[in-house]
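Carbonic anhydrase, pasting as requested.
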Amino acid sequence: MADSAVQQNLVAKNAEYASKFDKGDLGIPPAKNCIVVTCMDARIDPAAAYGIDIGDAHVIRNAGGHVRPALRDILISQQLVGTKELLVIKHTGCGMLSFKNEDALTMVEKNLGVQARANLEGFDFHTITNLEEAVKSDVKWLKDCSYVPRDVLVSGWIYDVATGKVKKVV
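Structure tokens follow.
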């Protein structure tokens, strides 16, 4: 089977990248000693938008930029690598604002069947109803979490996909 256009692009662009790559000596700990939890939305380029160069930070991305699903990665970063700052960055126009858990479950049932939906009963898709409140809630959860050391600086932000600007929420 031939490679897809996406795979062909990956190989070509990687060859170009690798031909100029000179960062192979970077250590595991991020230079800025921080973690960024942000959304997987393709309109966000964390490196460019948040001033992160290769080797600067651990960037954890998931739908909605939620911290609870990212806890495993946060723990690894803090406990094994020693990061001391955590930035939660959600964004305007997030798809997680456009549906509720029930909507997602209904779509799973329509596309994958009744059994698939039954298997997900009680599953939380971590949808968002209010962007600022979601940022505050995630930051509070981290600050209250016994797994996050008290000396870790936690802040919450909103990135505006229309302007490229960030705003501190908490």
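Note for the archive: The domain at 28-96+126-168 is CATH 3.40.1050.10 (Beta-carbonic Anhydrase; Chain A).
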